[in-house]
Amino acid sequence: MALTETVPAAPAHEGILRRQSLRESAARTYARSLPIVPVRARGLTIEGADGRRYLDCLSGAGTLALGHNHPVVLEAIRSVLDSGAPLHVLDLATPVKDAFTTELFATLPGELAEKARIQFCGPAGTDAVEAAFKLVRTATGRDGLMAFSGAYHGMTSEALAASGGAQHTSVVRLPYPYDYRCPFGTGGERGAELAARWTQNLLDDHKSGVPSPAGMILEPVQGEGGVIPAPDGWLRRMREITAARQIPLIVDEVQTGVGRTGAFWAVDHSGIVPDVIVLSKAIGGSLPLAVIVYREELDAWQPGAHAGTFRGNQLAMAAGAATLAYVRANGLDRRAGELGARMLARLTSLAAAHDCIGDVRGRGLMLGVELVDRDADADATGGRPAAPELAAAVRDACLDRGLIVELGGRHSAVVRLLPPLTITDEQADAILDRLADAITAAVRTTPGPMGSSPTTLRGTTP
């Protein structure tokens, strides 16, 4: 009798990934570039179903200020569950909501919190962006909006209309300061000043074709746009320009908030006080929550003007209040600024060794490495052409080394680092060690454009 050869069964995680690709839509994103199946997580670390451990520098796209499953977050959630409190209450008042709102207002710029109103929106940041647009249109009686090149504000129709790359007749695009790829070819303070003058002239020129808008929306650091921090002086100019013309200023702090940039809110660096601030991601302590906070004089809504079934997420409010309090009590915003500066300094040294790194930048623990074609000359903006294929290779090499990163920027050529605010110095070093090793590996194996030789380290030969 012939022996039959037993074929080993495929690991369970491979079946999960296969079924995901068959069942889920073509719109899935992170799952395409991160073929892992997380089953456990704590702090910076994720464990996959395959038994491998990864350092997570994606942090739920900035949602996990305290990392995965932080004890204070878990305790806050358990307390609500054990109390017998209702989990779904629409927009009714509850002790949990009151505690969250009180903690949130304690962190906001005093001038805003003193006479502010809060609107709980649908559970995603894009819902809050939509609410902000609706609010300023109602308050001003105007329709148009001003937004910035490279922006990202969400995936609903109006939020997309205000994001970079979209086309919308009621949204006017403005230049955003970007030192490495300055739209005016100059960069620095001069580039930021020209961007501010452009905006001011557009509003004051009666023949510009741009009527007075209902509001202006900006990100203090463009995240998905490539980790581009706005200069503090430019932010102050935008505040002056909008205030002088009675244009509400909306600041999108969905990704920059809760200590991420080295201040509790990114606007704290410049000292500006927006008319509307859009908040989500980290304010829910890893659970879905989104709000807008705005000056009371803008509160011209009628009852029901902006609603939504899932505005009363009690677990998210409890987790969010615990997260806000923990960041505030432990100075994690200051810690993010100090550690981020050290990481940026090391990334700068890494750029000096690799001519495929065009720029490194960031603020706090929101860092970016822009990869470029080393063989090309700088273009009219002052930067060399982006290298998205190399960036993808670096991302994949990072995953091979147990490091999860994402890509952003105009051409998906910026490697982004968004670690939790709770990481240690040793963990920060491990992140950068793995990134450096991944870049070295990727530049040796990724062909350059038009079939040229692979990108190499400075000072080496191909």
From TrEMBL:
Pfam families: Aminotran_3. InterPro entries: Aminotrans_3, Aminotrans_3_PPA_site, Dat, PyrdxlP-dep_Trfase, PyrdxlP-dep_Trfase_major, PyrdxlP-dep_Trfase_small. Pathway: Amine and polyamine biosynthesis; ectoine biosynthesis; L-ectoine from L-aspartate 4-semialdehyde: step 1/3. It comes from the Bacteria. GO terms for molecular function: diaminobutyrate-2-oxoglutarate transaminase activity; pyridoxal phosphate binding. Signal peptide: none annotated. Its cofactor is pyridoxal 5'-phosphate. Its EC number is 2.6.1.76. Keywords: Aminotransferase, Pyridoxal phosphate, Transferase. Gene3D superfamilies: Aspartate Aminotransferase, domain 1, Type I PLP-dependent aspartate aminotransferase-like (Major domain). Belongs to the class-III pyridoxal-phosphate-dependent aminotransferase family. NCBIfam families: dat. This is Diaminobutyrate--2-oxoglutarate transaminase. The lineage of its organism: Bacteria, Bacillati, Actinomycetota, Actinomycetes, Kitasatosporales.
